[in-house]
């Protein structure tokens, strides 16, 4: 489970999170969504212990991240937005390296590495240097590395970067399967349709505050029906994107401006 209670953080003297609270039960997937700059990555940095809150409490896998950072780190796997892996390694070497850091025995490392690489269709590339890997292939290795020690909690920051349609489906199936087996999944993303399809719980963040928490159905109902994307637009009070695009094109190309607001000529049918 994950519990974040009344967390406040300032960075360089600027308050970024203003009393953020939410709970994610074991066996569920939480989608953490919010506009650019809302504070999603800052929250993940708190969950991983990379950042210490100025106030409040952060518990991951039942362990207080500030009080016992070493034990907390054993409880989660983390897929960062811009993950770094040692590209001169092969996937087999890299996953073994990560597994050894977690003190797994060699037999467990072999079994888990083979299973993960087979799942992602990377068995044939298992012993190739990752230097020439595509972004998606590297992302699959990063997800595998986050899971190699079978953590009770999985933290993902925009995990779908570079993944093709099939890999997106696989990721969704993997997250749902992990949740069904009792793991806790925390999934931060801008991709609302992806979140809608996988999450039991959606936490909507805006300007460093949780403005809504509920199932995808509850959030869309609160937003007046439609898709999670529509509800998100209303909840986060973002301007009508089609109106804004109209004004941009008009202003940038000298065809007038604000009077076009509301016409939304390019609007999808
Ligand atoms: N080191 C820092 N010093 C000062 N402000 C920072 C620092 N890091 C982030 N911020 C600010 O904190 C706010 C939240 O940033 P954060 O990266 O958590 O947002 P986010 O929701 O992950 O955004 P995005 O969706 O664009 O990745 C932003 O306004 C950002 O400018």
TrEMBL record:
SMART domains: AAA. Pfam families: ABC_tran. One of its GO terms (molecular function) is ATP binding. Keywords: ATP-binding, Nodulation, Nucleotide-binding, Transport. Gene3D superfamilies: P-loop containing nucleotide triphosphate hydrolases. Signal peptide: none annotated. PROSITE patterns: ABC_TRANSPORTER_1, ABC_TRANSPORTER_2. The keyword Magnesium does not apply. Residues 2-232 form the ABC transporter domain. InterPro entries: AAA+_ATPase, ABC_transporter-like_ATP-bd, ABC_transporter-like_CS, ABC_transporter_ATP-binding, P-loop_NTPase. Belongs to the ABC transporter superfamily. PANTHER family: ABC TRANSPORTER ATP-BINDING PROTEIN (PTHR42711), ABC TRANSPORTER ATP-BINDING PROTEIN NATA (PTHR42711:SF5). This is ABC transporter ATP-binding protein. The lineage of its organism: Bacteria, Pseudomonadati, Rhodothermota, Rhodothermia, Rhodothermales.
């Amino acid at each position: 489970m994950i519990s974040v209670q009344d967390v406040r953080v300032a960075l360089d003297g600027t308050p970024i999170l203003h009393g953020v609270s939410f709970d994610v039960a074991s066996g569920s997937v939480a989608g953490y969504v919010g506009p650019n700059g809302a504070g999603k990555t800052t929250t993940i940095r708190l969950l991983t212990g990379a950042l210490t809150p100025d106030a409040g409490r952060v518990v991951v896998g039942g362990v207080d991240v500030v009080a016992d950072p070493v034990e907390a780190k054993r409880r989660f796997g983390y897929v960062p937005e811009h993950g770094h892996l040692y590209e001169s390694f092969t996937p087999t070497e890299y996953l073994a390296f990560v597994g050894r850091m977690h003190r797994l025995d060699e037999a467990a490392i072999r079994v888990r590495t083979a299973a993960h690489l087979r799942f992602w269709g990377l068995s044939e590339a298992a012993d190739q240097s990752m230097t020439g890997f595509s972004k998606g292939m590297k992302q699959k290795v990063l997800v595998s590395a986050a899971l190699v020690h079978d953590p009770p909690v999985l933290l993902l920051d925009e995990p779908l970067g570079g993944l093709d349609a099939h890999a997106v489906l696989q990721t969704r199936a993997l997250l749902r399967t992990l949740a069904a087996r009792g793991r806790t999944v925390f999934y931060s993303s801008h991709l609302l349709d992806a979140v809608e399809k996988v999450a039991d719980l959606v936490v909507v963040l805006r300007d460093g505050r949780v403005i809504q928490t509920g199932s995808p159905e509850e959030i869309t109902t609160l937003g007046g029906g439609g898709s999670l994307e529509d509800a998100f637009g209303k909840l986060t009070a973002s301007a009508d994107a089609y109106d804004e695009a109209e004004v941009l094109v008009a202003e940038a190309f000298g065809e007038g401006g604000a009077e076009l607001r509301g016409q939304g000529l390019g609007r999808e049918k």
